[in-house]
């Protein structure tokens, strides 16, 4: 029996560019379901992966701001 959470990793309904972003998350989720025993920790790993996938897809949807300066390497470490 497949884990019900797997339906949230489907990506065929997304535009092509977002499918490319979402696909690796789906593939990793499939690997997790196939190789790890069905335990509470597997469920946690799938839920966290789903959160990461959702954030990744949202990030891919954001258009860059034309006037925003490019990030400077190491700049975040100073903050």
Core attributes:
79 residues, single chain, elongated, 3 helices, mainly alpha
How would you characterize this protein structure?
- The protein is an all-alpha fold.
- Helix content is 58%, strand content 0%.
- The chain has three helices and no strands.
- The chain starts with 15 loop residues before the first helix and ends with a helix.
- The relative contact order is 0.15.
- The model has no long low-confidence stretch (mean pLDDT 89).
Distance separating the two termini: 48 Å
From N to C, what is the helix and strand string? HHH
The helix/strand class is mainly alpha
Low-confidence stretches: none
What's the number of extended β-strand segments?
Answer: 0
The chain-level mean pLDDT equals 89
The helix content is: 55-70%
Summarize the main sheet: none
The percentage of residues in β strands lies in under 5%
């Amino acid at each position: 029996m497949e884990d019900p959470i797997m339906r949230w990793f489907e990506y065929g309904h997304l535009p092509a560019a977002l499918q490319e972003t979402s696909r690796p998350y789906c593939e990793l989720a499939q690997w997790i379901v196939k190789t790890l025993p069905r335990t509470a920790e597997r469920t946690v790993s799938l839920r966290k992966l789903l959160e990461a996938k959702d954030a990744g897809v949202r990030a891919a949807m954001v258009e860059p701001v034309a006037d925003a300066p490019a990030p400077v390497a190491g700049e975040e470490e100073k903050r």
